[in-house]
Design a protein that fits this description.
It is built from 23 helices and 26 strands. By secondary structure, the protein is an alpha/beta fold. Helix 13 crosses helix 23. The chain is globular and about 90 Å long. The structure holds zinc ion (ZN) (3 copies). One zinc ion (ZN) binds next to helix 13 and strand 18.
Length: 745
């Protein structure tokens, strides 16, 4: 990777072994010529692999003998931008310990300077305009080094040797605090911002990959104001807390979570809340209403460290946007779009070149599980076990879009782009493709896309004029899971999610695919049910209750029906008329129906809300589940979802505790998955199961399913490098395109 201090490192090692020669950085990698006694050269080679700097990844070292040249000393020579570009631009990295020490040392010339960084830390991907990664190709180009910084930059013994974003108060970017008209609000921006936050104001803060909106997390009034101004009704806000200890006061933090919280990537980590009883710190209810988990991150830029040190308490730090728009990352745009939300703007003059939202992860069984792979991860490639015969561009899903460029054995998964229904997101989509293909010098020959004819990404793919590969949504999920685990299949892919374009005119989302990375057969699915009103049923789970209950006697007397009044009857008629009522096998919609029937939620304000709340209401101490029928309709195994819902209704009518009913539903579904997998295994001998799709973000269902399958002797694959949700679709599409290319050759 470029900009991780590899050349200085090589220089240091060469000096340690008394070697002469030089090291350079071309677009293909690092080249070193070292001259000296054999043992010294051998020691040098060994140290190159063993002692590499924190942000460096040594993929391959090749060695060749050269005649001695009699050089004196060991030099670092400049970058060469010509030739093929195979080195990688690294992800942005959290402030390192050495820089933090300087930040809070009153004797240091960078004391309280919000842009302190070095070769081991700081901005990377979000400031790079082009490669090679040298200052003129970054958004630091406009800040010429002062004498002192230049000395550090050119001194091989210095921690800042060839650190491209290096700067100081004399020569680097400056912080300001302003109102929406750009007028200054004070001389000491950090202290002023802390004061404003402390008095309940909302402050827009320019971060690494875009603007955040900050508010005092303990203030009900401040967080409620932020919700209403941002038009974000229920979706939880992320928190930034000053220290790991502060995170522990709010949530349960195991070793795995502690490691990722304090690591260099610094994602938002989803953590189980402490009960209010044993929590020694609390946050306002409005932060994450009804949520058992909180999204928590630690400071990752010097500016965050300064601000949190001053406040000493958690703040809400949520993306700087209105509702579902993309996060603002240019200054003009932020001042315009956020002027109705933020009371003040904490800004600076180092431009952000690429928008990158915070990444989100959860932990499961001592492992980090990606939920949104963006800042701190992108554009680090995912290494695959096979070569891509031809370079691939994969256009991703319509929602939670990412794109993927693959070449060699590397798949470069983009930052989070968002929902492509929005015009601005669509622009970000094309920009991301162009930028990544330039940075990684990948000229795609094949374009993978969803077969949905109306998706913006499909139209983009068609417009490229390149070879097209249409990849069904759930096959992409399963292939992503297989390649994530480094296997080819065949496997029984269980893809459970909200929505994906099916190949038979119905909406898929509860699928069992007998799949390899190249092909699949749909061998099982949830029984298809009507989705009254199409998209409207996604926002109104009670409609799915009506659909699932259409043949249940006395359903109209249930509370869910009574709450809707006359609308219930209208939807029942809509179902019978089949107008604007596609059929769906979606597992997400099954969760919606059960959530509505149990009175957990009739309508949602964000994707997956009803299912998340249903999971949280389930009592995990219960392990029994409703029996679920599986039949063979001649072409596939069909899981009787309506019968499962019928069992929920019966139990609910008997007055059974909600926590128990919800648990039995989850457990029943896990057992149904096992029944189908067993039947497929009996027929095919395949005993590898890949679990993918957004529904498997549900940890209770994941736990129960993995346990049930493993008990029956299956090997189970789950995601660990790319998200199981639609953020991983582009990776899966690329994998399928590559696998088909290999088969064709
Ligand atoms: Zn540093
Ligand atoms: Zn300077
Ligand atoms: Zn999906």
């Amino acid at each position: 990777m470029q900009g991780v201090g590899f050349r200085p490192f090589v220089h240091g090692v060469a000096e340690r072994f008394g070697l002469t020669g030089h090291v350079s950085n071309d677009a293909a990698g690092v080249v070193a010529e070292a001259e000296g006694p054999c043992e010294a050269v051998a020691g040098f080679l060994k140290a190159l692999r063993a002692d590499a700097p924190p942000l460096a990844v040594v993929e391959q070292v090749s060695v060749a003998d050269l005649p001695p040249r009699g050089d004196s000393g060991f030099r670092i020579v400049g970058s060469d931008g010509s030739g093929p570009r195979r080195t990688l631009v690294s992800a942005d990295s959290a402030t390192c310990e050495a820089c933090l020490a300087e930040l809070f040392d009153p004797r240091d010339r960078r004391y309280r300077y919000p842009f302190v960084n070095c070769t081991d830390c700081g901005p990377r991907f979000t400031i790079v305009r082009d490669i090679p990664y040298d200052r003129p190709n970054t958004t630091m180009a406009g800040f010429p080094l002062c004498e002192e910084c230049a000395r550090e930059y050119h001194d091989p013994a210095d921690r800042r040797f060839h650190a491209q974003p290096v700067c100081c108060p004399a020569c680097g970017p400056r912080l300001r605090i302003v109102d929406a008209h750009g007028r200054s609000l004070g001389e000491d921006p950090v202290t002023r911002a802390a004061e404003l936050l402390g008095s309940g104001m909302i402050v827009a803060v320019k971060g690494l990959g875009g603007y955040h909106l900050a508010a005092d997390a303990s203030s009900e009034a401040a967080t409620a104001t932020l919700r209403s101004r941002k038009h974000r009704e229920d979706k939880p806000f992320a928190l930034m807390v000053p220290t790991l200890e502060a995170a522990r006061r709010l949530c349960h933090v195991d070793d795995c979570a502690a490691q990722v919280l304090t690591g260099r990537r610094r994602p938002v980590v989803l953590l189980d809340r402490r009960d209010t009883g044993d929590a020694t710190e609390t946050v306002a209810d409005t932060v994450a209403p009804g949520e058992h988990r909180l999204g928590v991150m630690l400071p990752y830029t010097p500016l965050h460290h300064l601000l949190l040190r001053e406040l000493e308490s958690p703040i809400v730090l949520t993306s700087g946007n209105v509702s579902d728009e993309p996060i603002a990352f240019t200054d003009d745009d932020a001042l315009t779009r956020l002027s109705d939300i933020a009371d003040a703007f904490l800004v600076h003059d180092r431009p952000i070149h690429v928008r990158a939202d915070d990444s989100v992860v959860s932990t499961w069984r001592g492992r980090v599980v990606p939920v949104r792979r963006s800042r701190g991860y992108a554009p680090e490639p995912v290494t695959c076990s096979h070569e891509f015969p031809r370079p691939v561009l994969a256009c991703g899903a319509e929602l939670k879009n990412t794109v993927c460029l693959a070449s060699g054995r590397r798949a470069v998964l983009s930052h989070h782009i968002g929902d492509l229904k929005n015009a601005e997101t669509l622009r970000a989509f094309t920009e991301a493709i162009e930028h990544l293909s330039r940075l990684f010098d990948i000229e795609p020959a094949v374009v993978a896309h969803d077969p949905h004819p109306d998706h913006a990404s499909t139209r983009y793919a068609e417009g490229t004029g390149l070879d097209l590969v249409a990849v069904q949504h759930h096959h992409a999920h399963v292939a992503a899971c297989l390649a994530d685990g480094g296997v080819d299949g065949p496997a029984i892919g269980v893809a459970f999610d909200g929505t994906g374009y099916g190949l038979d005119g119905t909406v898929w989302g509860g699928e069992f695919l007998l799949a390899t990375c190249a092909t699949f057969d749909r061998v099982g699915h949830l029984a298809a049910v009507p989705m009254p009103g199409g998209e409207a049923a996604v926002r109104q789970p009670w409609r799915m209750a009506a659909a699932y209950l259409r043949s249940v006697a006395g359903a109209d007397d249930l509370a869910v029906a009574r709450r809707q009044g006359p609308r219930w009857e209208l939807v029942r008629r809509l179902i019978d008329s089949r107008v604007n009522t596609p059929l769906t096998s979606s597992a997400g919609r099954l969760f919606d129906a059960v959530a509505a029937i149990l009175g957990v939620r009739d309508t949602v304000t964000y994707e997956g809300q009803a299912a998340i709340e249903l999971e949280q209401r389930a009592d995990p101490h219960h392990t029994d589940g409703y029996p679920v029928g599986v039949t063979d309709d001649g072409s596939a195994l069909v899981v009787d979802g309506p019968a499962l819902v019928g069992a929920v209704v019966d139990d609910h009518r008997r007055g059974t505790d909600l926590g128990l009913v919800a648990a039995r539903f989850h457990n029943g579904l896990a057992l149904a998955i096992r029944s189908v997998c067993r039947e497929i295994a009996d027929r095919t001998g395949v005993r590898l199961v890949a679990l993918s799709g957004g529904v498997f973000a549900n940890r209770l269902l994941l736990d129960r399913t993995v346990d049930a399958l493993e008990e029956s002797g299956f090997t189970v694959l789950t995601h660990s490098r790319v998200p199981c949700n639609d953020g991983g679709i582009s990776f899966g599409q690329a994998v399928v395109a590559g696998a088909r290319d290999r088969v064709a050759r």
